[in-house]
Design goal:
By secondary structure, the protein is an alpha/beta fold. 41% of the residues lie in helices and 15% in strands. The chain is built from 14 helices and 13 strands. It starts with 7 loop residues before the first helix and ends in an 11-residue tail after the last helix. The structure holds pyridoxal-5'-phosphate.
């Protein structure tokens, strides 16, 4: 057999459906409510800081695990916000986006045969992350409409082989924000089975209706067994900068840094400098960010309901999971293709967030991190949609 083929690993997952929808959208001149990136400008102060860093000739490799000003800012912000002391030199590793932070963490802690628990529906990267790192994923369902998990189902997923559980709060795609009692249930199981929590908190500041974000690292006994993942992308509207990080217990930092170093050496040096400036923004910035997104959430839920979607109103993050049964299509992929080609609006088929496509076939995810004009144009185009008599069964 020819050796001119991809590896077995690479054949076990497909290309990203989310990014494919963006390409389809561009092809059909659609309004892109699929991939989660803002179409409005990043804050001036952050852009100015990046330009200043380039002009100041901060253009060579930063320290592989991250420029000191950014690492110190990350440690200081987490410590003061959540009361968990973080030592930048021992616990913070800056990566190329939280995407690399997750991959580096998985590669650093997983051995073949280790099991990793993933809540489903999940952010689509976690599946390939598990395959590439050699983990055996075990899925635990977040049950709609509140996207809660059954503590017995979660307990049944843990065993001696469980190395880690991946958590994402506020959650993509559901908008769920994990409550304290849920985090305590997860934490108790992590402690019981000596497992690590890998907590993707990239939507930390995008949270609604007066809720506050609660990192699992703040739950008793978890600071020593949690890798918290975050980044600049969503909080500062700079998804193209590719700056993210891990906050890990010192016992895991060395392994994460080694993997990170050989994967990418480091994130863009001038953008790390700008990251330190971004993290120093006042509380009012974060309050305005959440308030602006909350307004958009309310408008887009109203819009989608008017166009016959059933919405699961998000408590955080900038996505709305919807039910599309009313439109009578065979499945979510067929509907998503129709929507982008014939209506001119791109969204993500629900099946890309589930292990088994069937589980997501009546779902579609919209993102609303877009300008008001963009959302109004989507509204105008969605007028063309009509509900069908036949429903998806
Ligand atoms: C849950 C989640 N984690 C990570 C990422 C990627 O973040 P980054 O741009 O930092 O790689 C996204 C982007 O959509 C996301 O939704």
């Amino acid at each position: 057999m020819s050796k001119l083929t991809g590896s077995k690993k690479a054949t076990q997952f497909t290309e990203s459906v989310i990014r494919e929808m963006t390409r389809l959208n561009d092809l059909h001149g659609g309004i892109n409510l699929s991939q989660g990136f803002p179409d409005f400008p990043a804050p001036e102060i952050v852009k100015d800081a990046a330009c200043a860093a380039i002009r100041a000739d901060i253009n060579q490799y930063a320290v592989t695990w991250g420029a000191r000003p950014l690492r110190e800012a990350i440690a200081a912000q987490f410590s003061s916000r959540y009361g968990v002391p973080i030592v930048a030199d021992e616990q913070v590793t800056v990566c190329c986006g939280s995407t690399e932070a997750m991959m580096a963490t998985m590669l650093a802690i997983i051995d073949p045969g280790d099991e990793v628990i993933v809540f489903e529906p999940f952010y689509e990267n976690y599946g390939p992350d598990a395959i590439l790192s050699g983990a055996t994923p075990r899925y635990v369902t977040l049950h709609e409409p509140d996207w809660t998990f059954d503590p017995n189902e979660l307990a049944a997923a843990f065993n001696d082989k469980t190395k880690a559980i991946i958590l994402n709060t506020p959650n993509n795609p559901t908008g769920k924000v994990f409550a304290r009692h849920e985090l305590e249930t997860i934490a108790a199981l992590c402690r019981k089975w000596d497992a690590i929590a890998i907590s993707d908190e990239i939507y930390e500041h995008i949270i609604y209706d007066g809720r506050t974000h609660l990192p699992i690292a703040t739950i008793e006994g978890m600071a020593d067994r949690t890798v918290t993942i975050n980044g600049l992308s969503k909080t500062y509207s700079v998804t193209g900068w590719r700056v993210g990080w891990t906050i890990s217990p010192p016992s895991l930092t060395g392994a994460i840094r080694k993997v990170h170093d050989f994967l990418t050496v480091g994130a863009a040096a001038p953008l790390q400098e700008a990251g330190a400036v971004a993290l120093a923004m006042p509380e009012s910035y974060y309050a305005a960010l959440a308030a602006n997104y909350q307004r958009r959430r309310d408008a887009v839920v109203e819009m989608l309901e008017r166009h016959h979607f059933t919405c699961y109103k998000p408590a955080g993050a900038y996505y709305i999971m919807t039910d599309i049964s009313a439109f009578g299509f065979a499945n979510d992929v067929e509907f998503a293709r129709y929507l982008v080609k014939e209506v001119g609006v791109a969204a993500v088929p629900g099946s890309s967030f589930y292990k088994s496509a069937v589980a997501g076939r009546t779902k579609l995810r919209f993102c609303f991190c877009k300008r008001e004009e963009t959302l109004r144009e989507a509204d105008r185009r969605l007028e063309r949609l009509v509900p069908a008599a036949t429903k998806i069964h």
